[in-house]
Every structure is written in C-alpha cells, then in structure tokens.
Design a protein that fits this description.
By secondary structure, the chain is of the alpha+beta class. It folds into two domains: 117 residues, Probable inorganic polyphosphate/atp-NAD kinase, domain 1 (Rossmann fold), CATH 3.40.50.10330; 160 residues, Tumour Suppressor Smad4 (Sandwich), CATH 2.60.200.40. Helix content is 29%, strand content 34%. Strands 5, 6, 7, 8, 9, 10, 11, 12, 13 and 14 form a ten-stranded antiparallel beta sheet that branches. A hairpin with a 2-residue loop joins β13 and β14.
Length: 306
C-alpha cells in the first residue's frame, strides 16, 4: 500500500526542511511507495492526516518531532467511522524526539524507515486531555510554564533550550491551588506541577512520569507541591534520572499514581501542553482519560507484532 508521509518543515527549527532530500533518498533506497506532503501552519498536519485516512492511505507517517506526531495522530483519530484504521509510523526529525526514544525507534532515518517497512504493529494506548489526544506526555503547572518559555526562546537550540527554560521557570516559582480527582482518590491543596504520561520521558531529558507505559491501558500521573526555589532546584537533577537512578518520585512531596481518568480544577489558570504543544496558555478545568490500545503503531520488532 502507498504510505502518506507528512513532513513538518519547521521541526528542529527548520532543520527538517533542509533534510527533505535526505529523507526522500532514504525512502527511495528502501523502495517505499509514498506520497509526501508538507504542513504549512500549526494544525495543518491534523487536516492532512485526517484526509489521508479518508483517502485510504496506510501507513500514515509523521516526519518531524513530538508535536508533529501529535498532530498526525489527532488527524488519524478524529471523526472515526467504520473505515479501517491506518497504521501509524514516525520518522524522528525533531529536537527532543521523546516518543521515538521512549519506544526505541532509531533517529537514523534509514533505520527508522526499516521499522516502517518491517510491518511490525502493536496497538498503542492514546491519552486525551479535554478534546486533544496525545501520545507521550501532557503537563500543567511549572512543567507547562517550561514549555511556554522554551517555545519563545530564539537563540538557544536543542536540549539546552529545555534545560535553560526549566531554570527560568524555577526562578519564577509559580504556584497553584488544585483539586484533583481520579479513579480511587482525590487531593485538594497546593500543587507545583502535574505531569501525565503515556511514556516516562519528556523534554529530551526529564523523566517526569518514570513508570508510565503506553501498553498498560492506564494513564500515569505525578503531582506534588514544592514551595521554594531552592527545593525545586535541588529536585531538578532527580527529574533527569530514570527509575532506579534516584528519580524524583522518591521525594516525600511527590506522588505517582495509575488511573484511567483524572479531572483537575486549577486556581489561578495554568498553561497546558500536549506532547510539547501548548494548547492553552490559561486553563482552569481539565479532564484526562486513556483510550487503551487505540492506535496501530509501527514499532521495532522487539516491541511490535505482525
């Protein structure tokens, strides 16, 4: 079948656009039959992916970074009918490439294309916040403030941008009052951040939800209140460590919970991101849920099944 490749030229600060000849050469070398389209504005990849599904393309491939994967997945999942679900694949060409790393998909383009041509598929859990689906991570509070700050930085590039943004957010030390309610519990009180994960890592270096898995039919979230800049600063290196290496969830102020639904009310309003894309800069009510095994994803043989 013919693959639809959706390329986000802006990924990795326009480097994806410059790599288009490399991408097409690798696709042709692998004898992939494809049509390539280029997104032109925020949200365009959603439209392109939705159209590709309606036209019967499979697989539908997102070439870019995490926000590109997010848009393409949202396009595939929107307005579902009796039409067969296309296979979904990714070609990592972004900055952090968190979803790719979390799932073991190589960043080398020929090797990533081999994952697609191998045809190994495994249903992936999809999470949702309000009306937006996401595949890797969503956050509110200080985590989403970091996302806003790094998106506005013009002179820093790569993972360093995320780290500097985290330092700036800590210096600002924003705080919120939140009401959280999940399947088997609730909490009301001060909160510094809530991170909802389908996978452990976000922002290239931050293991904010270290036990999250996209294959367990659950959403995993972390919340906590860290009141001072000095405490947040001391916690930062632990957020950058995976499980087993002293991750921050061992801190008494931090809780990690598995659930299927999570509702949150926030005071004052907070930004919210989904897969690194800011979907609101000021929101007060959020509803998270999991859709188990919702997306048919092309994965390395160690994770996929034919």
């Amino acid at each position: 079948m013919v693959a639809k490749i959706i390329l986000n030229p802006y990924a990795n600060r326009w480097k994806a656009s410059k790599r288009r000849p490399e991408l097409e050469a690798a696709l042709k070398a692998a004898k992939v039959e494809y049509e390539l389209v280029v997104s032109e504005y925020t949200g365009h990849s959603i439209e392109l992916a939705n159209r590709a599904r309606q036209e019967g393309f499979s697989p539908v491939i997102a070439a870019g970074g995490d926000s590109t994967y997010n848009e393409v997945a949202n396009g595939i999942l929107q307005n579902q009918n009796d039409q067969e679900m296309p296979h979904f694949g990714i070609l990592p060409m972004g900055t952090a490439n968190d979803l790719a790393d979390n799932l073991g998909i190589p960043k080398d383009l020929p090797k990533a294309i081999q994952v697609i041509t191998s045809g190994h598929v495994r249903p992936l859990d999809v999470l949702q916040v309000n009306q937006r689906y996401f595949l890797n991570n969503s956050g509110i509070g200080v985590e989403s403030v970091v996302t806003v700050i790094q998106s506005e930085m013009k002179n820093l590039h790569g993972i360093l941008r995320y780290l500097v943004a985290a330092m700036v957010a800590i210096a600002r030390n924003p705080q919120w009052e939140m009401d959280l309610e999940w399947d088997e519990g609730q909490y009301s009180g001060p909160v510094t951040m809530v991170s909802v994960g389908n996978n452990p890592r976000t922002g290239g270096i931050f293991y904010t939800v270290p036990h999250a898995s996209p294959f367990d039919g659950k959403l995993t979230f972390v919340y906590g209140s860290v009141e001072t800049r000095s405490k947040l600063l001391r916690l930062l290196p632990k957020i950058m460590r995976p499980v087993g290496e002293g991750n921050y969830i061992s801190h008494p102020a931090i809780s990690e919970i598995e659930t299927t639904n999570l509702s949150i009310q926030v005071r004052p309003p907070t930004p919210v991101h989904a897969d690194g894309e800011i979907i609101s800069k000021a929101i007060q009510k959020l509803a998270y849920r999991v859709h188990p095994a919702r997306l048919l994803m092309l994965l390395p043989p160690s994770l996929g099944r034919v």
